[in-house]
């Protein structure tokens, strides 16, 4: 038979375990938010415009476990941009609005690289392509404070800009640009070129923070591809929150994949889902080279962590933080109530 003393001991153990669980949950969430909401969006990306159709698109990847699509700003018929490295929503919104106002790439870069506008401009990176009255402008900006390797490259003939920072080498950007601008892959369309360019960047090593000395090459934790048709509304996403599948502003193509650190390369799932999308949305092309560019496989699947990361990105990081904090507080309070009630019941009369 369990004595009152044993009961008290059991309650204390349960209380202690509950507090540890609550603090661990809170700590994990705060750690995740510190990474995700910090002014760090090191990445590699490609932005481009189709001058014939007016379609605009972007593809990118990052070794941060949040949707990398938040770095893109698309204004169909006018331009596309990547806002990355020491990312802040204010700069994303500013670039997005200037694209919508019909400003050219050079005008946007001039403002965004002005240290009187942004005191931390040395830490920023941009890649922008605009289409105005048939004229294409492609340009980038890489602040000197970006971690090596960092840089941007453009090909105005193909209306494309490739950029990245904290990379394995310059080849990540140069190979992406070469893959996008390839002339021996047939009459492929903008989404095909973006997909191949992102794979080429991953094949060159991608984000060096996702690779280690043991030989693991994941190259990124998050990857995306997004393309909007000329008749669709402008599009940006909030940092750390995937758009709803029912969002009327959702572009023609939107695929985002997030993996746990040390897990599989997200480019593998991105390619699989892209192929499925292409079979339903683009015509068969007999002369096109639609083969995937081989990328490093990364590590072993981590389904539970991946599910949690996807849930957090679906509901939004801010709401996720509030929910987890409230849950932790409620758990601690409930356990304290149980503990003190037990003490009162066992107190001698």
Question: H/E order of the elements?
Answer: HEEEEHHEEEEHHEEHHH
User: In angstroms, what separates the terminal alpha carbons?
Assistant: 22 Å
Q: Please identify the top-level CATH class of the largest domain.
A: Alpha Beta
Question: Largest sheet, if any?
Answer: 6 strands, antiparallel
CATH superfamily of the largest domain: Aminohydrolase, N-terminal nucleophile (Ntn) domain
CATH architecture of the largest domain: 4-Layer Sandwich
Outline the secondary-structure elements.
Layout: H1 4-37, E1 44-49, E2 56-62, E3 72-75, E4 79-84, H2 89-100, H3 105-112, E5 125-132, E6 135-142, E7 151-155, E8 160-164, H4 171-180, H5 190-203, E9 222-228, E10 253-258, H6 266-281, H7 303-315, H8 317-346
Antiparallel strand pairs: 1-2, 1-8, 2-9, 3-4, 4-5, 5-6, 7-8, 9-10
Helix pairs in contact: 1-8, 4-5, 7-8
Structure overview:
The chain is an alpha+beta fold. The protein folds into two domains: 4-37 and 316-346; 44-303, 4-Layer Sandwich (Glutamine Phosphoribosylpyrophosphate, subunit 1, domain 1). Helices cover 39% and strands 18% of the residues. It contains eight helices and ten strands. Helix 1 (4-37) packs antiparallel against helix 8. The longest helix is centred in the N-terminal third of the chain and has 34 residues, at 4-37.
Notable characteristics:
four-stranded antiparallel β-sheet, 18% strand, single chain, Glutamine Phosphoribosylpyrophosphate, subunit 1, domain 1, alpha+beta, 2 domains, 349 residues, 10 strands, 8 helices
């Amino acid at each position: 038979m369990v004595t009152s003393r044993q009961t008290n001991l059991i309650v204390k153990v349960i209380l202690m375990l509950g507090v540890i669980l609550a603090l661990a949950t809170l700590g994990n969430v705060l750690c995740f938010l510190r990474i995700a909401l910090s002014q760090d969006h090191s990445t590699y990306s490609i932005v481009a415009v189709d001058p014939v159709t007016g379609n605009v698109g972007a593809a990118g990847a990052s070794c941060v476990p949040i949707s990398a699509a938040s770095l893109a700003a698309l204004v169909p018929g006018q331009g596309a941009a990547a806002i990355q490295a020491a990312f802040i929503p204010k700069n994303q919104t500013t670039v997005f609005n200037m694209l919508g106002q019909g400003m050219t790439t050079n005008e946007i870069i001039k403002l965004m690289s002005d240290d009187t506008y942004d005191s931390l401009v040395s830490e920023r990176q941009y890649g922008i392509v605009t289409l105005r009255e048939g004229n294409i402008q492609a340009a980038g900006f890489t602040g000197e404070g970006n971690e090596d390797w960092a840089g941007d490259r453009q090909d105005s003939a193909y209306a494309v800009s490739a950029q990245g920072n904290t990379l394995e080498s310059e080849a990540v950007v140069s190979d992406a640009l070469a893959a996008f601008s390839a002339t021996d892959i047939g009459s492929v369309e903008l989404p095909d070129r973006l997909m191949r360019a992102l794979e080429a960047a991953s094949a060159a090593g991608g984000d060096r923070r996702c690779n280690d000395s043991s030989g693991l090459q994941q190259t990124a934790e998050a990857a995306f591809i997004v393309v909007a048709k000329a008749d669709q509304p402008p599009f940006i996403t909030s940092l750390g929150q995937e758009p709803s599948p029912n969002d009327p502003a959702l572009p023609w193509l939107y695929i985002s994949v997030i993996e746990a650190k040390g897990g599989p390369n997200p480019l593998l799932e991105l390619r699989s889902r892209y192929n499925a999308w292409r079979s339903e949305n683009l015509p068969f092309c007999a002369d096109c080279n639609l083969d995937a560019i081989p990328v490093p496989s990364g590590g072993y699947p981590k389904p539970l962590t991946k599910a949690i990361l996807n849930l957090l990105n679906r509901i939004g990081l801010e709401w996720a933080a509030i929910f987890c904090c409230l849950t932790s507080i409620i758990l601690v309070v409930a356990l304290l109530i149980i503990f003190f009630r037990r003490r009162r019941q066992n107190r001698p009369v």
